[in-house]
Amino acid sequence: MSKYLPKQADLIKEFEEKPSPLKGDYADREWWEMPYEFREGNFCFPAKPEVIEELGFPNPRKWAVTDDDWKLPDGWQKTLMDGMRERIKKYRSLKLYLDSCVRCGACADKCHFFLGTGDPKNMPVLRAELVRSVYRGDFPMVEKILKGFAGSRKLTTEVLKEWFMYFYQCTECRRCSVFCPMGIDTAEITIMVREILQLIGLNNNWILAPVANCNRTGNHLGIEPHTFVQNIESLVDDIEELTGVTVNPTFNRKGAEILFITPSGDVFGDPGVYTMMGYLLLFEHIGLDYTISTYASEGGNFGFFTSNDMMKKLNAKMYHEAERLGVKWILGGECGHMWRVVHQYMSTMNGPADFLQEPVSPVTGTKFANAKVTKMVHIAEFTADLIHHNKLKLDPKRNDHLRTTFHDSCNVARGMGMFEEPRYILNKVCNSFHEMPENTIREQTFCCGSGSGINAEENMAMRMKGGFPRANAVRHVREKHKVDSLVTICAIDRASLPPLMRYWNPGVSVYGLHELVGNALVMEGEKKRTEDLRENPMTGIEEKEGDVD
Predict the structure, then answer these.
(1) For residue 365, how many other CB atoms are within 10 A of its CB?
(2) Cα 320 from Cα 296, distance rounded (Å)
(3) Label partner for 306 (CA 20 to 30 A): which of 48, 55, 245, 334?
(4) How many CB atoms within 10 Å of residue 303?
(5) Mean pLDDT confidence for 269-290
(6) In a 10 Å sphere around its CB, with 0-12 CB exposed, 13-18 middle and 19+ buried, how is residue 181 labelled?
(7) What is the rounded average pLDDT of the residues 331-359?
(8) Angle ∠(188,193,194) on CA atoms, nearest 5
(9) 249: preceding bond cis by omega (within 30 degrees)
């Protein structure tokens, strides 16, 4: 149990006693007068100076969020305001989102952090107002027009600390944007504010350490190529021991038809490794001509949480490796922010990838027209197409020991519009699937509470608060349908949801979608299956299933 994890009773007490505009003296005060406090469990540690130096970012130094003196550089206000001016000029969307909010409040109760904390500054409208108030106060023309009927503030140290606290309590999930009548994307504001804060050395080590690792070795964990291969080969051995089947991945093989890229968490982290085993079984089952790069060994992109330039740099390795290896197209594994970057930015940021072909399934002949520009296909689309064309031999009874529900990962759902493919697969590989309430799934899905680089242990208390709405939806299906398995298609979800479930819903385990595919696949030459990929017993298999022909 993390030392940063409070007891549930203490969390509930804090929620009930926390100052609010609806309580006590604060009802007569302005929103910016609401107090805030950095304390153990509600913030992430700053980046270490050696990490900042490795990346060439500004103001490397040792400091603590709880210090009074954050050791800011001389002229930091000017640096930030110049940075804001530059980005408002460069990104029309940022200016539009800052100017067009009418403060109607439609977004107010849509943020999981507001619902979990009760803190009004976690309402998307007020979180953005932290910046808008400075934008009004320091940009003369805007101030002249708006000052008479809208609040404005100067950029002080206290305001700066508010920015750091609340823009790292936004997971860029974009749920609020679904309900905004003006179409404001608060995530874009968060992205820009974090980028601006980097200019004076305000950052997060749980983001920048993986960025530095990926910049150096090609993956977030900083794993060298030989270790990357060894880990996958150990999974190959596990698969053979469990199933009797030898899978045959290749590495850095030139001339393969497909380059497969997945988050490094699927190679090194529990429970992601079981998802990786599912991929390997699937590819062996269909005889896919693919290779894995030990250099572009990361599908995720923490540069997305850092700056546009870093996002572009880290993403470029996928196209570079595809060109070097001479593949036809790229197949991507289960990830959230990886696919937000690929789907919404990659083609203009790193493209055009004219050296690649429009993706066509070598098994079904299906053209993936939606990937015509990026040349990159999501594994759920690929697998759903295989199932639709009856190319997989599946036995859903092998997942009868699991009663499942599905968590729509924010970036795949709202960022790509992918809702049905994973559900189609899930219904084909298991016999027990139950949806969470309608207003908590698909476009309206609740975030895991730990995305966008705030999945640090020291931030555990805040993560449990932010994840509460999702946990509450899981509790609903657990109580109604005895659900014990939460399935997702995001590596950060697979890392963040297990502690969330242990805290709010003990007994609910977290699975990747392709782990369940791997359980259900009937492989040629396999031995009798009595255990799933986690070596847990498959319910009733001993009695009901004979040897597979």
Answers:
(1) 9
(2) 8
(3) 334
(4) 23
(5) 97
(6) exposed
(7) 94
(8) 100
(9) no
Nearest to 367 by CA among 329, 397, 325: 329
Tell which residue, 318, 319, 332, 327, has the closest CA to residue 260: 332
Evaluate whether 210 touches 302 at the Cβ level (below 8 Å): yes
Give the DSSP letter string of 342-375. IIIIIHHHT---TTSPPPB-TTT--B-GGGTTT-
Q: Report which residue type is found at 295.
A: Y
Does the structure show a pLDDT above 50 at 11? yes
Contact 31, 129 (CB under 8 A): yes
What's the predicted TM-score (pTM) here? 0.94
pLDDT at 543 over 60: no
State the chain's maximal CA–CA distance in angstroms. Answer: 80
- Tell me 521's DSSP state: B
The DSSP secondary structure of 228-279, one letter per residue, reads HHHHHHHHHHHHHHHHS------BS-TT-SEEEE--THHHHSTTHHHHHHHH
pLDDT at 545 over 60: no
Q: Are 470 and 112 contacting, i.e. CB atoms less than 8 angstroms apart? A: yes
What is the average pLDDT value for the chain, to the nearest integer?
93
Asked whether 144 and 173 are in contact (CB, 8 A), the reply is: no
Give me the amino acid identity at 438.
Answer: E
DSSP 8-class letter at 75: T
Ranges 32-36, 155-159, 231-235, 292-296: which has the least confidence:
32-36
- Asked whether the beta carbons of 413 and 495 are under 8 A apart, the reply is no
Helix (H) or strand (E) holding 380: helix 379-388
Rounded Cα–Cα distance for residues 280 and 286 (Å): 10
pLDDT given at position 546: 47
Three-state secondary-structure class, residue 394: strand
CB 276 within 8 A of CB 267: yes
β-bridge mates for residue 69, sequence order: none
Asked if 535 contacts 241 with a C-beta cutoff of 8 angstroms, the reply is no
DSSP lists the bridge partners of residue 509 as 485
- Nearest residue to 52 via CA among 201, 159, 210: 201
Q: Sheet with 404-406: list strands edge to edge.
A: 404-406, 485-488, 509-512
Please report where in the chains the tokens 């060994």 appear, as a residue. 297
Percent of the chain's residues with pLDDT above 70:
94
CA distance 461 to 116: 11
Q: What is the mean pLDDT of residues 492-496?
A: 96
Domains of the chain are: 8-35+58-202 (no CATH), 218-388 (no CATH), 396-544 (3.40.50)
Provide CB contacts within 8 A for 88, sequence distance 6+: 94, 95, 98
Where residue 148 falls among pLDDT bands split at 50, 70, 90?
very low
- Distance separating alpha carbons of residues 476 and 432, to the nearest angstrom: 16
pLDDT of 548: 45
pLDDT of residue 153: 85
pLDDT at 91 over 60: yes
Q: Which two tokens stand for residue 16?
A: 């009930």
